[in-house]
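Continued from yesterday's entry.
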Amino acid sequence: MPNWKSLRNLDFPITKKHVYLDHAAGGVIARPVFLAAAKFWNETYQEGDFRWSAWLRRKEEARSAVARFINAEPEEVAFTPNTSEGMNLVADLFEGEGEVLASEMEFPASTVPWLHRKMPLRFLKASANQTLPSDFLRAIRSKTKIIVSSYVQYASGFRQDLAGLSKIARQNSCRFVVNASQALGAFPIDVKAMGIDALAANSYKWMLAGYGCGIVYVRKEILRAVPPRFAGWRSVNNPERYDNRRADIKSEASRYEYGGPAFANFFALQAACEYMTSIGKEAITRRILYLTDYLIGKLKKSAIPVLSPLEPSMRSGIVIAQVPNPGAAARRLFRGGIFVTPRGGGIRIAPHFYNNEKELDKFIQVLSSK
């Protein structure tokens, strides 16, 4: 069992002043992540571009770390600035294939790229803040060729059964696309075992790696079959040749890293992957679910309704507490040094592994005060 108290005290100085329960909006940065990014900035501060070749090698080490984190192959992973760009790259690959099916609960990053391309997009109605694989199965028709789903829904905390939904997608010859922004870093992801064709996520929520980085995973068979719409000087097989008369585009996902790399962000995400792996991904998940279970118990004792699904298989790191005037409640909590977000018809609470019971008790106390 990891020493949660020790990790909290060593790696998260925010806990000395504030109660931070807003990881579904934007997470704090863990100390090893800060040090990894600072190391790069110090190198470029001291030596300019002198370490370019070393940075390129480290970028590939970072790619391998991300690939291991989701059980992909390095050639299937590209760095992006955020989830939205990753989803746009996926939409480019599948444009024109047919109808897209998604839950009405999706965050717009999952849907706007398809809408922008005028692809037919049909929404599933949610019941009790959930859309089950069986709901998708009933909704599939001959035109349906792409299923898009978040692993965890941002405004309800509903956690999708990705393996079950993937099986339905395969049985009906549909592509399976996942937005993992509200899960990566909180729940283990195995793109192979889960049968995912493409996935997009970011670094700044549950990964605790700060803004400016994301990832896109695309199964290598798809990458090799469909050329990219956009390309840059680093999209080619030998960019250091500086050949401006030929576009020898890579078949690997790194073709989407068009120009000068955001090295600091890549190294930060690598550090986050290695940090969470050293703690134990499954241990982190158990800790998050323990804290949300503790919180739900406290909310029930305070007669505060919980809008998130309560079934264990659908639970996540997000809990929505139904309160009158969520915006005013969030402002009152903020004045008390507690960070949450009004969302999903209530207050969204999203603790991570370094949070503790005392912080959740304080949240309940301030929320219940007049």
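--- second protein ---
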Amino acid sequence: MTKELLLKIDNVSSGYGSTIIVNDFSFDVERGQILAITGSNGMGKTTLMKTIMGLIDVRKGSIFFKNEDITNSSPDYRSKSGIGYVPQGREIFSALTVEQNIMLPIYTRKKPSFNVLEKLEEIYSLFPILKEKRSANGSSLSGGQQQQLAIARALIFDPEIIILDEPAEGIQPSIVSFIGKVLSDLSKNSKKTFIVVEQNISLISQLNSDCILVEKGILSKKLKSSEINTVEKARDLLSLHN
């Protein structure tokens, strides 16, 4: 069966001011794939994700999504085209309820073509704790619940690919494992595509994904899922220590 190329990063460089952080980066993502991107802090992972989202300008190279050149497209255009983003730190709105947070993207766009209430119930089936707390303010949630909320908010408009930046950060292991299962199930059952920036070795091995190691803004190593399908293999090959 022929696999469909969804996202192509072609020799991309980007940074801040006169400083280049990401240098000549290239990789492809196929539909239904989970790609993990890892590396120590300060290596350029978040800069790369913000570049893909259009939050940081490309200095060199190109970005293609569904065969369309989106290198110079706005973040809003990329989002409407089907790229979802869960930023590091989650960035939920603490004064809004759980349901208001999830529905916020709906309020800011034209009426969607799908049944919003059905989609909301589908999301609640993935994250039952959010349904239970649907009327609670975001500020009342634990870190793990806030992360589930951030993912739910990204899912409401049914994006074709979702970028998650450090989804395991500051979250207890049982919730990390739960989030990993949700992502894996969505990839297998719904052909959802994910780029997961992560240092948590347990989550990387659980996702059974191919993995890219970033060092000083450069793609240092590419590994197949079969090479990192246990925590021990992943830790050894990626030289990370958590």
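The chain has one domain: 5-238. The mean pLDDT is 90. Will compare against the first tomorrow.
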